[in-house]
TrEMBL record, chain B:
UniProt similarity note: Belongs to the LeuD family. LeuD type 1 subfamily.
Pathway terms, separated by semicolons: Amino-acid biosynthesis; L-leucine biosynthesis; L-leucine from 3-methyl-2-oxobutanoate: step 2/4
EC annotation from Swiss-Prot or TrEMBL: 4.2.1.33
Domain Aconitase A/isopropylmalate dehydratase small subunit swivel: 1-123
Source organism per UniProt: Parageobacillus caldoxylosilyticus NBRC 107762
Protein's name in the database: 3-isopropylmalate dehydratase small subunit
Source taxon at top rank: Bacteria
Amino acid sequence: MKPRTIIDKIWENHVVYREDGKPDLLYIDLHLVHEVTSPQAFEGLRQKGRKVRRPDLTFATMDHNVPTVNRFVIADEVARNQIAALERNCREFSIPLADLYSEEQGIVHVIGPELGLTQPGKTIVCGDSHTSTHGAFGALAFGIGTSEVEHVLATQTLWQHKPKTLQIRIDGKLGEGVAAKDVILAIIGRYGVGVGTGYIIEFTGEVIRNMSMEERMTICNMSIEAGARAGLVSPDETTFAYLRGRKYTPKGEEFEKAVERWRALATDEGAEYDKTIEIDASTIAPMVTWGTNPSMSTSVDGTVPHPEEFASETEQKAVRRALEYMGLKPGTPITEIPVQHVFIGSCTNSRISDLREAAKIVKGKKVAKGVRALVVPGSQQVKKQAEEEGLAQIFIDAGFEWRDSGCSACLGMNPDIIPEGEHCASTSNRNFEGRQGKGARTHLVSPAMAAAAAIYGHFVDVRKLKKEPVH
Amino acid sequence: MKPFTIHKGKVAGIDRANIDTDQIIPKQFLKRIERTGFGKFLFYDWRYIDGEKPNPAFELNWPENEGATILVANENFGCGSSREHAPWALQDYGFQAIIAPSFADIFYNNCLKNGLLPIQLAKEDVEYLLRESKKADYELTISLEKQQVYDDHGFARAFAIDPYRKQLLLKGWDEIDLTFVYEPYIAEYERKHCPMP
């Protein structure tokens, strides 16, 4: 048989019906649901008297809207209604829900892997573009809109054309202090926010192989910022070790059988991709975005660019507009940009290893005067673990605010909003205008870089800082 | 879904690339649980100063763009979040078609599900339309049946669309009803691969 990529294998395994001139009808193994993109879908089901076909393959939580302090008191009536609607819908359609009272609640893309719902070879969808995160496990996972949410609820399938395949191969060794976040920001910075449009990305190479599952999740999470609906990594021993013993993974002998199946999913030697990009890890430094899309970035030792450095007129115009929005002058060293807010959280970087990396920088220091710094763990389980490991205390002692889990200031649907005109070093995924609040100026960075910015009040090259042992 | 067959309407241009769905419909409006009424919040932060006064610098507030039903923009339109509130807002505002050199994948899909027609044209054609759109009363006609975009002055371009999606749009069919026709295949797949517990 011709060598195949993991993308081809998962796709073929899920074709329910195929006919010329039509997209394939694909089966969906796991449908994750949250409060923001689902109410209209459930309403659609009700209006037509339809049922949820497989509540057992559906799992819901609330994350976008939830307050991260006093989480049971939702002051915003519209947000409260939306959360109540999800509770009602899950009850009516018998869908399991990790609600605000549950120890399993958290950002949907953090709890899926944590609970072992996310597994190699699965097709996974959610009404959220960062569903690509689950690709880290060798799953085909992508974001969908509300109409598709309704379609999956009713039929457990989607009509899909198979996208092209893009291999991004990262070989060599990452330098000390260079994180997974820097790798994905560097890729998007070099190849643009549209490089993956129409593609599914498979991340390969020595760097990916040496990464933990949490680092792989950070990379796959931001596939969508490169334009790709899905990004994935072939599963290996690291994947299986992470999944062993999780709540929803098979147990005992069943687990060993599953591992054999999962192992066979990895891309075959000699399989062909529609496009391949190769990156030398040694060329990647800690990154900071200076603009209003994730490709507008440079290394921490760089400077804010001049619009004239860009080739096309469209780009120059976009850069001028971005610099005006960000209140930045061309030529300013990145390390001289003052920071008033720090946000450590989001589905990109809110897992236990992210908090450990940040705590190593923070331990024994204080947040700079005039800086407000938040740590929002990705899930209640991450929160608990960080408290047990003493990480929470390190943050609190330094003057960080220690919060409950949720999407929080990544998109500011809850009260965690960055004020107009202020700069925020953020471990999230989008630096769009107004993303963290109207007029807020977001700089995307790794957890260690965000922590350092909190301590110094401006960006600092973490490669030059001492890290303290934390656990 | 509302069928889309042929449409003639006024053209508005926003000459920016990478217009993301956070701009099209900011997050504070995603808390509503309805599908309608998002038009007044379309491009909210660009469109209004302090949330109430129309911003005269924003293209959709220019008099020549009043009543436009076709939007032309630059590359990678609709990137970012999967929020279907973006096409809902564009449609509720009055747009029936969006023309750009490229679209983000999820946004493109979301448009098709709502009868809002996304049309991909070559960059130079989009540049031409962006220039023409500055004329008050510049109109385009879009025939989905013929897969043609044309004006009254000789501009005419063909556009591509997936034949399956085209049928659904022309007929305004409910996709879930159609999929139920394939229920035996779904049941068979489940029997083999994914039985009910």
